[in-house]
Amino acid sequence: QRIAFGDRRMQVVTVMADARDALTKRSPDILITSVDLPGGSGYAVVEMLRSGPAGELPFAAVLFSQESFPDKVEAIRCGADVVLGTAALDELAQRIDAYVEVAIKPPARILVVEDDPEQAAFNESVLRSGGSDVLVCSETQTYEQDLYTFLPDLIVMDILMPGIGGHDLARFTRQNKRFATTPIIFLTSQTDLQTRIQSARSGGDEHLVKPVSPGLLLATAASRIERSRQLQSMLERDGLTGLLTHSAFADRLRQAWLVRRRHPRPAVLAMLDIDEFKKVNDQFGHAVGDRVLYSIAALLKRRLRQTDSIGRYGGEEFAILLEDLSAVQAERLVDLLREEFSKTNHEVFGGEPFNVTFSCGLASLTAGDEDLESWKRMADEALYTSKRRGRNRVTTAGSRT
After folding, report:
1. Those residues with Cβ within 8 angstroms of residue 273's Cβ, 6 or more apart along the chain or in another chain
2. Which pLDDT value is given to residue 293?
3. Residues 6+ apart with CB under 8 A from 280
4. How many whole angstroms from its chain centre is CA 265?
5. Which residues contact 118 (CB under 8 A, 6 or more apart)?
6. pLDDT of the residue at 124
7. 93, 194, 271, 305: most buried, per Cβ within 10 A?
8. Among residues 361, 362, 367, 379, which one has the least CA distance to residue 327?
9. Catalytic residues, which ones?
10. pLDDT, tens digit (0-9, with 9 covering 90-100), for 9-40
């Protein structure tokens, strides 16, 4: 059975023989398996997935009806990323969202700080072979500019540099909260214990010794980038909906505003608020209210572009940054979302399904806009206008020039 889900496909099999056949034909991006299968076990399914070509890439989850600690350890040993009870489907959905968020990110950006031309060329060649974008900083005088313009996901740093040493550059890097979790790998010819201690104290995550094998450099860089992205996703994402937190969305909004001050391009801020959400919590309970919040978040992620920033701005308030769309295009898009959400049935155990609506306000950013707070205030006022006019509608504020 194949089920359409957005632009993805889901294949459901119920016996081990069909699972084996499906994995032979095509490796999935995501595998979810019960531990008990007719003719085999979920452990074997995961092992089969991991043993295939590029088998380390997919996301694998094993579900238990009655799990025990040894069962969980066995599932992880076989290669499972997530081990959960069958009742924890909301948590499973959140974990899949987090995996997809990391998986769809663009190639990692790696800043190589190295004054030796041969070593710099070696580092660049090896790291590019792993699919990363690499920028070489050969002079410490340009380090600050390279850091802030390139915004690296990882820094590979020599220690012995003319002028300012690598340890001091690392301490400088850690002073900025934007790079507080950016991994720093020291790659140096120094092997003494005191230098290793200084590497750790200055904020380094790894201390590799030259000459380093290409495989070790690639593996270390890849593992550090993956962990950093997972941590960043956890810090930036709301635990219930998987959307950007208020502060993370505000950072994205400010970045877009700064870019458009230098290079004017259209952008629209949409503020959404679920209508009469308090009544949902009062009538059906907060667990049902949480499912409504998750439902609208899932709709937004499913229907909007990967380049659109979506945040949970408050309790039942959401915000969307729609870049390179006109006000007319954005209003049409959000109104289609409003209509689809209003027709979504929300289930209640032992009761009749119910529907919920949302109201929205839009504000365009134009070449003449210079005040970020005014842009946000325009969207807020447009949202309140939608509320005053009866809810379940989209209102666009007048564009400023």
Report:
1. 316, 317, 318, 358, 359, 360, 383, 387
2. 94
3. 274, 288, 289, 292, 354, 356
4. 25
5. none
6. 94
7. 271
8. 362
9. 316
10. 778 888 888 888 888 888 888 889 988 888 88
